[in-house]
Target: ABC transporter permease
Amino acid sequence: MRSRALVPWLWLLPAGCLLVPFFVLPLAVTFRNSFWRDDDSGVAVPAFTFANYARVLGDPYYLQVFGNTLWIALLIAALALAIAFPFAWLLARLTGRAQALVFWVVYLPLYVSVVMRAFGWIVILADSGVVNQALLAMGLIRQPIRILFEVEGMVIGMLHRYLPLMIVPLVTALRKLDPSLLRASANLGAGHWYTWRRVVVPAALPGIVAGTQLVFSGVLSDYVTPSLMGASGYQLVAPAIYYEAATNSAWALAGAMATLTLALVSLLLVVANALLRRFAPWAATL
Model:
């Protein structure tokens, strides 16, 4: 009996050997450094102080950085949900080769490096890129529109990156919807929009919550896309953390910013799951 109890832990051992040294320990060191003090020589001096947190939470610049990041994360999550929901509904109703082909289209961007995808969007959105050249050729504009290295271009790149993370959970939830519920709703006289609102959306809530969590947390910690496509005057938290650590050598301050970001993501996960259990208990058990 004791050997059987050890079997699950043996299965978890390979993952633990990767997570502990390459994830848990770096997080622990970052959390420890957030309470240290940055020295003028560019090293973090052992201490125990809340000065780094006080600086981040009391400086308008850092508050603006976190505000920018939260706004972009909410915007990307909302846009991804609006685009992904009808697409996921169609995908969930497909069968056979058609469904496999569309799934392949959804998964394909995930196999490409995020750096390559960002450079692809740079080619498309540049002043001399495909979009501006097409608009100029059609006579819709007289001079190129500034999209790249602006908030709009960054939003497009992030939306393309995180859209699959919204589609997949939605498809998983919608495929569990019993078609007999739709027929019963129609037989009882409900219209398409009423059925969509009262049957489809409640059944899709687990996918909505899971997709929103994945997209929101991903945008909060995204460094590559804002760095390659973002606007210099619209700073997000991940590039700001890198700048403080690598350029200013403020490792303790960067640790405090990283810890606050992680706490924000954790708070989102806990609150979203609590709200789901409170207001949609049927969805929490699907």
